[in-house]
Design a protein that fits this description.
The structure holds 2 protein chains of 2 kinds. Chain A is α+β, with helices and mostly antiparallel strands. Chain A is built from 28 helices and 35 strands. In chain A, strands 10-12-9-13-11-14-15 form a 7-stranded mixed sheet. In chain A, strands 29-32-27-33-30-34-35 form a 7-stranded mixed sheet. By secondary structure, chain B is an alpha+beta fold. Chain B has one domain: Phosphoribosylformylglycinamidine synthase subunit PurS (Mth169, Chain: A). Helix content of chain B is 28%, strand content 33%. The termini of chain B are far apart.
């Protein structure tokens, strides 16, 4: 390989060859490269062999390709772990590749035929029917949303939509799903670190960003969740997901040497430079505005329109999106197995004055890269012109397995693809886990004392109201109503359901093909509070929750596939990493047990921030599990609201003393305790049975039990349907607890559903669920009241549905009329002082 | 006659009696900052740089930037007439918020495209901003506080206060 001539001032050579370790570290730090000393040394050796210094383009390309964001150093590196697996005894274990040995291993071992593309493309792909496939991807955009909530969240949505546009030969985005974690919106100013936006402002900006991008592109946003915890104050989590729909014969892409590298969409500016490396470091003050990206939904909509036409006309052989790392990443990945020769001088710019490395690394939004055969290029050009989308050939794919970047006639980078993609030194990290349920300082909840005491202090009705008012449980109507969840016309079960379309749906159901009744169910599971006690059972519960939500509306668990999104603190802290390893272990154990493959995922590490006292804090280790599955006939789907008085109410699943991390503890200010633990074999059998019952039309309403347990679920079903209920806690199937009323009412034991069944179907329903833990625990009633009898037969709770509902709505109503929101007449209702 | 390139500021406000939703929501949020305000007005601001005759500016304003049923506009060339809001009320404090020069301005880009679709090809750049006018606050310091806590993100915004 010949030396690179440096002819202009636009390219700098970085003096690396003779640099000592301290200089190497300084070069990485000052250039915002986020490369470790070991990585810098490997790069130095590579260029020493070639007897030249690297250019800035080369060093920047390596830094972003080797970033945590792009290469998942921690998940793919070596981890020396000490701790128990599940509830076993602690033992050391070495992971050579955590992702491969846990999450991906489930899919490999299950080897189901309907997984069409997993862990290799921009999204996972599963079969929908004989002709069509579904693509699903969830991404995070945490750091950008912390700095500029509107732009950060909008580009998060834009980015994940482009992932789906760039899967296979391109999928049509048909659904968005968004999950957010924020600091408490009523956080006192004194707890806010300097320079950090208030949680309320972050929330309003994020919601507006997601709304504007999704709505303007004409994609329904019909599923999501919003959580609040002090651990997210300066580091909110913004998960953006998109489901795509594509023909099964368009799932594979290929690149041929000689194909043109074609860039379509927006122009390139200095937006978001260093996004990939920036996302791999902690959030600190003094950040440049160049890391901020602003989205342009209409531009992306035009790209979508062009791309799907070009796909169906067979005008290109491969496509991928320009995301983190910009052209460097997109072109580098498409050409990884052949080779690339690109000319940055051809790239259309927003303004002049960009250095070659800036053009190559820029994360300007709304751009896609295609591999286009020479023969079809004129047709593609004409098509793009007709839709007003700029398309430019910026180079070609080669067969010499090298990455060559030119700026006009000047060669500005030349790297072996092998070194670029496989030259990175493997990271070895230490991880340790100590059981927190037994840590001194946290008082384990004894069944008798604590619950009894709680009962004396707080009557069940008061606790139920506190739970319903809690922002994590309360209605998010103010947010949901801003999203278009109907566009494209396929929605079957919407996010808000019930007599007045304001009850909380477990999942959304939609039909991507309007000429077929086959439906798709999308659901999610997330609970960082369990993880504060034990990430293993948190991960297990998240999988259980996503699947039980999916089944609650009628989805088929045996058709379900999962996505994992880990957001964690600093992986260089062994205790933090220990929690992550435990969660990943659970992903394998539990998903394997449920026989649900993972098809794609993403991790976002280094989510740390400094609090008002200058103390470094990590977010609570958070795992979002997203589930996608099928419902053979969407007309059989059920909603969660009680339908008519006089029906039977069944509780399917066993209740145990599992209050650790529960919201019952949260409202009482308690910590510690035993985290809910799914029993996978029974859970899966329950899901199969419930699906069968729903398919046979035996179920009128079904709601999963999650935060707030039976009490909250029963109340939500009642006020959503405006039908009262009378429940008897003595009839609950339970195990291992002293049948105390409050534990029965608010335990968050997983794998449970409350099911409304018509008396006509009693026999048939009980036959379907026979052999499983279930109890006929009550009836729907004419009075618009929720009545609960305690184990001794006395009425322990009697509350009017109207009051319960008003309390549940009050959190959302407190936002109505605020900026980015709309004021409805109904929002002017007097506020309820139901909060504690 | 084609003149030299100038800067034109257009300010679009709601007509009297029409509800200004942005202003209403700011009013609602101010008590959280411990402030009360008599009135808030907002305006959409556009900064056009180019060679434009008055008749062309009028056409851009009328055909592109204003919904005549609920809005009205005033505009001026900087140094020629004051385009800001504070002509409307005496003793009020104004605040203008613009995206920093290098930050992508999607609204500005769309307006530029719209202008070229009108057949006017002599505009070089368009930037969009927001104007606010506060009545009944205790001086500039309070407006500065509102800007910093509520309306401005210093990472992407430039702002300035008026008398």
């Amino acid at each position: 390989m010949g030396p690179i001539a440096v002819t202009g001032e636009r390219v700098r050579q970085i003096p690396l060859l003779a640099a000592a370790d301290a200089q190497l570290e300084r070069i990485s730090r000052e250039g915002l490269l986020s490369l470790t000393l070991e990585e810098m040394r490997v790069i130095q050796r590579y260029f020493q062999e070639r007897q030249r210094d690297p250019t800035d383009v080369e060093l920047e390309t390596l830094a972003q390709t080797w970033s945590e964001h792009c290469k998942h150093k921690t998940f793919r590196g070596t981890i020396e772990f000490v701790g128990p697996r599940g509830s076993g005894t602690p033992s050391p274990r070495v992971y050579r590749d955590l992702l491969k040995e846990t999450v991906m291993r489930v899919t490999e071992e299950l080897a189901v035929p309907w997984c069409l593309s997993v862990f290799q493309d921009n999204a996972g792909v599963i079969a929908f029917d004989e002709e069509w496939a579904l693509a699903f991807k969830v991404e995070t955009h945490n750091h950008p949303s912390a700095l500029e909530p509107y732009g950060g969240a909008g580009t998060g949505v834009g980015g994940v939509i482009r992932d789906v546009l760039g899967v296979g030969l391109g999928a049509k985005p048909v659904l968005n799903t968004d999950v957010f974690c924020f600091g408490p919106v009523d956080l006192p100013g004194t707890k806010l670190p300097a320079g950090v936006l208030a949680p309320r402002r972050i929330m309003q900006g994020v919601v507006a960003g997601v709304r504007d991008y999704g709505n303007r592109m004409g994609i329904p946003t019909a599923n999501g969740a919003i959580l609040f915890d002090e651990g997210y104050v300066a580091n909110p989590l913004v998960f953006c997901g998109t489901v795509g729909f594509l023909p099964r014969d368009k799932v594979c892409k290929s690149v041929q040497p000689g194909d043109l590298i074609v860039l379509i969409g927006g122009r390139t500016g200095r937006d978001g430079i260093h996004g990939a490396t920036f996302s791999s470091t902690a959030l600190t003050a003094g950040i440049s505005s160049s890391v901020v990206q602003i989205g342009h939904a209409i531009m992306e909509k035009k790209i979508l329109d062009v791309l799907l036409q070009a796909r169906d006309q067979g005008l290109y052989r491969a496509v991928t999106d320009c995301g983190a790392g910009g052209l460097s990443s997109a072109v580098g990945e498409l050409g990884a197995t052949c080779g690339v020769r690109a000319d940055v001088a051809q790239v259309p710019l927003k303004y002049s004055g960009l250095a070659p490395w800036e053009i190559w690394l820029s994360e300007s939004q709304e751009r896609m890269v295609l591999a286009v055969p020479l023969a079809t290029w004129p047709t593609l050009q004409a098509l793009c012109a007709s839709e007003g989308v700029e398309a430019t050939a910026i180079g070609e794919f080669t067969n010499d397995r090298a990455l060559r970047v030119m700026s006009d006639s000047e060669k500005v980078a030349e790297l072996d693809m092998e070194f670029l993609h496989h030259g990175m030194p493997r990271v070895t990290r230490q991880a340790i886990w100590r059981d927190r349920e037994q840590v001194v300082g946290i008082q384990p909840l004894t069944p008798r004392g604590a619950v009894k005491g709680g009962q004396r202090l707080s009557p069940p009705g008061k606790i139920l109201k506190q739970l319903l008012a809690h922002p994590n449980i309360a209605s998010k109507e103010w947010v949901i109503r801003q999203y278009d969840h109907e566009v494209q016309g396929g929605s079957v079960i919407k996010p808000l359901v019930g007599a007045h379309a304001d009850g909380p749906s477990d999942s959304c159901v939609f039909r991507p093909r309007l000429d077929s009744w086959s439906g798709v169910v999308v659901a999610n599971g997330i609970n960082p509070w369990y993880g504060m006690i034990d990430p293993y059972w948190m991960a297990a519960c998240c999988i259980d929750e996503a699947l039980r939500n999916l089944v609650a509306v009628g989805g088929d668990v045996s058709s379900a596939a999962l996505l994992d999104n880990f957001c964690w603190g600093n992986p260089e802290h062994p205790e933090e990493l220990g929690g992550l390893v435990r969660a990943a272990q659970a992903c394998y154990d539990v998903a394997k047990g449920f026989r649900t493959p993972f098809i794609s995922g993403k991790d976002s590490l280094h989510n740390t921030w400094r609090d008002a006292q200058g103390q470094e804090r990590a977010i609570p280790g958070t795992l979002l599990i997203s589930a996608i599955g099928l419902i053979p006939d969407a007309r059989q789907a059920v909603t969660m609201d009680y339908k008519v008085p006089g029906d039977l109410l069944y509780l399917l699943g066993e209740t145990r003393e599992e209050l650790g991390g529960s919201h019952y503890h949260k409202v009482l200010g308690r910590t510690g305790g035993r985290v809910p633990r799914p029993e996978v074999v029974t859970a899966r059998r329950s899901m199969v049975a419930l699906h069968l019952a729903i398919q046979r039309g035996l179920v009128r309403a079904c709601h999963d039990l999650s935060e707030g347990g039976l009490g909250v679920a029963a109340a939500e079903m009642a006020f959503a349907g405006e039908v009262g209920a009378n429940l008897d806690l003595a009839k609950l199937p339970f195990r291992g607890l002293d049948r105390m009323d409050l534990a029965l009412l608010f335990s968050e034991s997983p794998s449970r559903w409350l099911v409304e069944v018509s008396p006509h179907h009693q026999k048939a329903f009980e036959q379907v669920i026979s052999g499983l833990p279930f109890g006929l625990i009550g009836k729907t009633i004419t009075a618009k009241t929720l009545v609960v009898h305690g184990i001794n037969g006395r009425v322990i709770l009697r509350e009017s549905l109207a009051i319960l509902k008003r309390i549940w709505l009050s959190f959302s109503r407190s936002f109505a009329g605020s900026r980015h929101g709309t004021i409805l007449e109904s929002d002017r209702a007097p506020k309820v002082k139901g909060k504690k | 006659m084609v003149r030299a390139s100038t800067v034109i500021i257009v300010s679009v406000v709601y007509r009297r009696g029409v509800r200004d939703p942005l202003a209403a929501s700011i009013r609602q949020e101010l008590p959280e900052l411990g402030m009360r305000v008599r009135r808030v007005h907002t305006a959409q601001l556009y900064r056009l740089v180019g060679r434009l005759m008055d008749s062309e500016v009028k056409r851009i304003v009328r055909d592109l930037l204003v919904d005549p049923v609920i809005q009205e506009a005033r505009w001026g060339r900087t140094g020629v007439s004051s385009p800001s809001l504070n002509g409307r009320v005496r003793g009020a404090v104004s605040l203008e918020v613009w995206l920093k020069p290098r930050v992508t301005d999607v609204v500005g880009e769309s307006v530029l495209k719209g202008i070229s679709d009108l057949g006017i090809l002599t505009v070089e750049t368009v930037r969009a901003g927001t104007g606010y006018l506060f009545e009944g606050l205790k001086g500039k310091a309070q407006v500065q506080q509102i800007a910093e806590r509520l309306l401005v993100n210093p990472l992407i915004h430039d702002y300035h206060l008026g008398a």
